[in-house]
Amino acid sequence: MKHIFYLHGMIIEVQGIRAVSPQFGAYEYTSIIDSLKATGAEVHAEVRTEKTDFYEFGKKISKEIDELIAKGAAPSDITLIGASKGGMIAMYISDLNINKVNYVLLGSSSDYTQKTFDWNLHGNILGIYEKSDTVAGNNYQYWIDKSSNAASFEQLEINTGLGHGFLYTPNKAWLDPAMEMIKRKD
Questions:
Q1: Taking Cα atoms as reference points, which of 162, 143, 139, 153 lies closest to residue 181?
Q2: Which among 9, 11, 41, 52 has a CA at the least distance from the CA of 167?
Q3: 80-132 pLDDT, tens digit each
Q4: If 0-12 CB within 10 Å is exposed, 13-18 middle and 19+ buried, where does residue 101 land?
Q5: pLDDT mean across residues, the chain
Q6: 152 strand-pairing partners
Q7: How far apart, in whole angstroms, are the C-alpha atoms of residue 100 and residue 77?
Q8: Positive/negative CA dihedral, 83, 70, 3, 131
């Protein structure tokens, strides 16, 4: 059984699952979850609120990963997909959790993350960044260079022209590469 953890962006914390950005439009949370469920995997998608503590939430998800593995799940059958702030939480989890699980980071690399956090990531990582994203569209080279613990770390530049809004929908530009990570066997 494959397991996908979807960690949404900050706008959902503020507005809920029907969030709409004046700049990027509707965050299609339900459509994203439905697209992930269509893989046949068990999707873990807890909606955070503004009161959710970043570090405590990351520790909680890390513990859930450990519990799945203790129950017999192969690390390669677990994929975390983190969008924007959810990607930052996924990076924190990857720093904490030494299991070789898969991570897909969407729009999560920015000057802020590079200046604020000193993470050394574990697992198989795919960082996806949008060329037109002015919020968190940095490439992941900084994190690749820092992450000596990573089993693999690749990055992919996409060019949808949607800015940070590329991660607001189940856009094939990020969803197809994410599906490849979900199917990984190693």
A1: 153
A2: 9
A3: 999 999 999 999 999 999 999 999 999 999 999 999 999 999 999 999 999 99
A4: buried
A5: 97
A6: 124
A7: 10
A8: positive
The letter for the amino acid at 137 is G
- For residue 63, name the pLDDT band (cuts at 50, 70, 90): very high
pLDDT at residue 179 greater than cutoff 90: yes
Residue 25, Ramachandran bin (φ over 0: left; ψ between -120 and 50: alpha; else beta)? left
Amino acid type, 185: K
